[in-house]
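Final report, Chapter 2: Outcomes

The project's central promise was a pipeline that accepts a single protein chain and returns its three-dimensional structure in a standardized token representation, suitable for archiving and comparison. That pipeline is now operational. To close this chapter, we reproduce one record exactly as it appears in the project archive, with the input sequence first and the structure output second.
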Amino acid sequence: MSLKKFFKSDPDDTSIFGHGFADIIDSYDWDETLRLVNEATDADVRRVLAKAARNTKPLTPEEFAILISPAADPYLEQMAQMSHRYTQERFGNTISLYIPMYVSNACTNKCVYCGFNYDNPLERTILTMAQVEAECKAIRAMGPFENILIVSGEFPSKCGVDYLENVLKVCRPYFHNMTIEVQPMRAYEYERLTHSGLNGVVCFQETYHRGAYCKYHPHGMKSHYDWRLNGYDRMGDAGVHKIGLGVLLGLEQWQADVVMMARHLRYLQKHYWKTRYSVNFPRMRPSGSGYQPVSIISDRELAKLTCAFRLFDHDVDISFSTREDPEYRTHIMPLGVTSMSAGSQTEPGGYCSTPDALEQFEVSDERSPKQVSESIAKAGFQPVWKDWDSIFD
């Protein structure tokens, strides 16, 4: 079924078929983007770092590409010091803590790398509102979390806007800041959820390579590349307070993907300048699908990427999840990170019990929220559980 036929009777056609970043992304050549990275010289790196040090104009995505190049390797320590300084200027010495809550692993997509793949022959779970509330209580018993990320597989008929609205209403008495990571929605649906307490939306494009995207997403709503990519414009049109971007490092050449993401961020900032933004750098993790990464980004390269993105944008929130192990998360903190997850369970109902539900991916940092918080404080940072009080809502 085509996307147009699927939404034939939708009352808000402009939010579905309107213009967005998908209309211009093909003007950026993938191979040429890789050449920007691979052919950068030592002189190019020194020129971009000098501009970053002057701090009079923001770096361009093309200059960001130079900072993640092999030529920039000898300058990682200098980049780290600059990244640390600019992060402290904007965010102070703080690390914001959040926790994901998976409400469903039911999904109509057949993403080849994901544990939620429709073809995986495992029992699917969709939490009832009573179970959602039980999860909320269990999370609050773990620590004073106020920032929650509500995650669901992409199953619009069962976990669509009606279901999510009910979930938000149940969670709202327990958490002040609620973000969702679900299937892309229509603009008026995002707006509707903001009235139930929605503050932010995280959506992973997975890869910006149009051809490879279709290979990794052969079936389901997620197979529609333009629909997903223009979803960020629909979030902006709906007035979502904070939008999170990310690519899955390991699907394609990570250097080209993150440069495309930098271009996407600049586009969104220009068109939806009232919105806050965050970026995520998740590396491929083992999942129930059995899929293994095509390309690998090393620990050092990920550190360089983190520093480069902070030099590229001083205000963006950079988040690291429990995909990374404890030691690495501790060492990456001073390099530009501003938020981290803690105590994560990646299966529905995981905080109340240990169900046999399907996980989306394996967690690498299995420390408790208290242990994560103590580690942050030991590293000289202040763990922040809450960004504001309800009196200001």
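Archive annotation: The longest helix spans residues 254-271.
This record, like all others produced under the grant, will remain available to the consortium after the project formally closes.
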